[in-house]
Amino acid sequence: MYMRILQLFLFLVFPFSLLAQDNLIINTANRQTQSLNGKWHYIIDPYETGFYNYRFKEKNADDPEAYWNNPVIKNASDRKEHGYSDNYTLNVPGDWNSQAEVFKYYEGTVWYQREFDVSSVAANNRYFLYFGAVNYEAQVYLNGEKLGMHKGGFTPFNFEIPKQLLKEKENFLVVKVDNKRHPDEIPTVNTDWWNYGGITRDVKLISTPETFVQQYAIQLKQEQDIEQAKKKKSFEISGNLKFNHSTSGSVNIQIPELKINKKLAIDGREVSFNLTARKLQLWSPEKPKLYDVQIVFEGNTLSDKIGFRKIEVSGKDILLNGEKLFLRGICLHEEIPQEARRAKNETDAAQLFGWVKDLNANMVRLAHYPHNEYMTRMADSLGVLVWSEIPVYWTINFKNDSVYQKAEKQLEEMIIRDRNKASVIIWSVGNETPVSEARTNFMHNLIKKTKVMDQTRLVSAALEVHYNREENFIDDPLGAYTDVVSVNEYLGWYGDLPGAKAQAKWGVAYDKPLLISETGAGAKGGYHGEKEQRWTEEFQEWYYEETIKMMQQMPENFSGMMPWILADFRSPKRNNPQFQDGWNRKGLIDDKGNKKKAFFTLKEYYENMETQYE
Ligand code: GCB
């Protein structure tokens, strides 16, 4: 009840900013868009002079020294104390840290600015500015007017451009980006990854008709016996479409390959439907079949490629399309190590998935936040299963309701963007959060929210484990609410040496599938020596060998693992000058892109597991 009142209050106070996810437009790749990627001007503004006046109040909209304005100097005597120049540009998309030395450690405000023309502004169309992600807070201004604000560094958002504001020539677009860390944000101040700032993902101008399909969820209906369906060769598909506002008329759902063309009457903002598909080929890692799905409304066709599959838990097992699944996973950050920068485009996704495939993995854990959409689209087409997570990481302020709202909003944006991706099988509501009543309530509420939004995936979180010489026992109270029990384990790196692993016993308080969501050890690529010598590739290889022995004696609910981590990644917390130098070295691939010895150890284990499950 209290939550509801708070939500209503927030809606009244911040109708557009905090609740932007209600207006989120999905599948922007297949809509009419104009890319606004490219070179943008910037001003570094650590004192936020462009935003606050000298009494530290937000500047008036028409203040010529507000950095969203661009007053033209007319007389030599005119005063102007800011400006955008071709001498100061940043590439969009892209983090700022990797683009110039001055940004490497910068955390604060940077103003981004560019101009753009539109070939023709149609009076009957709607126009939206769409951002794939901006880390962390974005204030967006067009032609001197503020369109809105968004918080959350890894999820998309869009703002509608009011009619009359968009011009055909010289639109002046400004984004204030602020990546300062705060205790009451998601994530909080303390993370083991680099706080890359900037407009890190694509920016687009979307044009739509007056009324359009804004969001949809189309999937294999969860409540159907998949074995029966396979036998009868008849599958149920269920879906829901959401328009940008209430409307009437009709809409057609077409899946030509399945000979489906269904006309649906519209009366309101949403339409739900069921379809029956004969001879459907289910999506799986072995055969990642995607169907062309078209939504035809008032002469406009919105296309997508969607795979149909069923993921479920049955007792101690995870089943995909009714068959027992073993997750040969690997964790990764959204980072290109050779260039020490955030990954941002299709080429980057291809590099990362190239490594994943080479490892014989069938799954990725996208740590610790939603990655860009190229990743999940590629996972769909390559047949790689995905765990996608929100950055509820470590010591979030779990007692604060407004912090909960921020986490829930990121969760919603993640789910809305990717719920048509067959590859995504697990939503994770967080990682290694310290057990307390407030934390368990907070995360339980996130799980409940996830279940309301999406019944076709599993929910998990990386839980706490009690290390014990006798038995490592998992009884984290959050495990009562997750579909699978997942834990990060580092026995042999953070405690003991790898030799201790083979004897380790594992116990779980819950009768559910068990996943090891992390395990790993550091090694400097190219550094060799005795296996007992920390930071050598041999130490890491030994750690993996012993981990594999441990995996072979796990309880029978053990359903897969996602070692930490595919490649070395930057972290300000890693300051051993000889071996780390600002990098977390637990990668199986080093910062030059070279595979370490342990890569091959895990690859071989995964090859064996693959044959075992065939
Ligand atoms: C963990 C965290 C991960 C760290 C990793 C490490 O448990 O979930 O974010 O980077 O350990 O390397 O210590």
TrEMBL record:
A Pfam family it matches: Glyco_hydro_2
Broadest EC class assigned to this enzyme: hydrolase
EC numbers: 3.2.1.23
GO molecular function ontology, one term from the record: beta-galactosidase activity
Annotated ranges, domain Glycosyl hydrolases family 2 sugar binding: 34-209
Record InterPro entries: Beta-gal/glucu_dom_sf, Galactose-bd-like_sf, GH, GH2_Domain-Containing, Glyco_hydro_2, Glyco_hydro_2_cat, Glyco_hydro_2_N, Ig-like_fold
UniProt record, GO biological process: carbohydrate metabolic process
UniProt keyword annotations, A-Z: Glycosidase, Hydrolase
Glycoside hydrolase family 2 catalytic domain location: 311-610
Similarity comment: family membership: Belongs to the glycosyl hydrolase 2 family.
Name of the featured protein: Beta-galactosidase
